[in-house]
Design goal:
By secondary structure, the protein is an all-beta fold. The chain contains no helices and four strands. 0% of the residues lie in helices and 51% in strands. Strands 2-1-4-3 form a four-stranded antiparallel beta sheet, with no helix packed on it.
């Protein structure tokens, strides 16, 4: 059975809260990564890079 699972990355928005809730879907290897992912990705609503945190899919 594959150890990769689909995860949901949800934007926390910029400093003013613009773009909060935008979603990206990605894969994560559950075998090697035990903690929740937090990455900076481009948010098309805010038109800048914002922080995305992993949520339950």
């Amino acid at each position: 059975m594959a150890q990769q699972h689909l995860i949901k990355l949800v934007s926390v928005g910029d400093s003013k809260g613009v773009g909060k809730g935008h979603v990206y879907y990605s894969r994560k290897n559950k075998k090697s990564v035990e903690r929740k992912i937090e990455v900076k990705k481009f948010n098309p609503i805010a038109k800048k890079h914002t922080t995305y945190k992993e949520k339950k899919a």
